[in-house]
Design a protein that fits this description.
The complex is a heterodimer of chains A (115) and B (224). Chain A is built from five helices and seven strands; from the N terminus they run E-H-E-E-E-H-E-H-E-H-E-H. Chain A has 115 residues and is an alpha/beta fold. In chain A, strand 4, helix 2 and strand 5 form a beta-alpha-beta unit. In chain A, helix 3 packs parallel to helix 4. The relative contact order of chain A is 0.24. Chain B has one domain: Alpha-Beta Barrel (TIM Barrel). Chain B contains eight helices and ten strands. A four-stranded mixed sheet of chain B has the order 1-2-3-6, with helices on both faces. Chain B has a two-stranded antiparallel ribbon with strand order 4-5. A two-stranded parallel ribbon of chain B has the order 7-8. The chains are: A alpha/beta (115), B alpha/beta (224). At the A-B interface, helix 2 and helix 3 of A face loops of B.
Chain lengths: 115, 224
Amino acid sequence: MLKLSEYLAVIDGTNHTPGIDPENIEISGAYVCDMLSDVMGSAREGQAWITIMKHLNTVAVASLTGIPAIIFAKGNSPEETVVQKAAEDGICLVSSPLDTFSLAGILYGMLNQIV
Amino acid sequence: MSPRAVVDRAKSCGIDWMAITDHNSLANCPAYAAAAAAAGLSFTWGVEVHTSEEIHLLVYFDDPGAAQAFGKELYASLLPIGNDPEFFGDQVIIDENENILGMEPKALMNSSVWDLSTAVGEARGHGGYCVPAHVDACVNSLIGQLGFLPAEPQFDLFGLTAKADLNEFLQGHPELAGKSWLRCSDAHYLADLGSGSSRILAAGPSVGELAKAALGLAERKILV
């Protein structure tokens, strides 16, 4: 398990949902995918989701799947409507300037060092 | 949306020919066909297929029997994930009086296992006319999902979002110059009906005529 706040600290992460405290979010794993249908079928509750998609449907899929945080790669930032929906649903939205590969590599390393 | 309300709204927008293109399902077409007929509005059976590449493909049918047969094949091709009514609402099948005839158990908002080529092959094999949906949109568009216009399958008509500036869009996509377009509302709510529409100059409200208009045959045309 890993606190989302620890991850954000090393990825130059920006929290777009300040009402949600990353200190209180525990990440048990992660899923990296840019296809909604695949995330719906394969992602697990408690996983962070790394993606380049920033549209409203990502929040719906995160809510449905039990994903507590979405990490937008490559500096992608969600629009206000997406942020609002996420805040309502309790999903933390984070942007990082890093690419998907780097974000996944860093998270994989952090998760596997903590037993 | 209730069939009567949809039909009344369409008429008030000056629309005289409509189709519904529910996500991965044609089950509600009979109800809307009946409501449209009662109101003197022309109606075409349609569906919006969600391919495995997450491309949205509109398919229109002149033959309801063929449409229903295609609908069965499409439903069988959907990923076997059950619907969650809390998120997506109940997937009801209704008659024109809004009586619930049944529910669809598989999540319709998910994708089919068919890729684009397979979906087009199946649709055309059932006499369906294929139109890639909202090609200018950011999500679920043919160009957006693939990053380019594929050489195959070929299409004569492409869907446009309600408020798109076609000239502006074409500037960024010279590969689509000279293509034919169909502007649609893609309405998911009653208020959005009529937000986008096309003027089709043809001999009648049929898919056969739409196909000719897309090719500009015999003075037929589509104005967006």
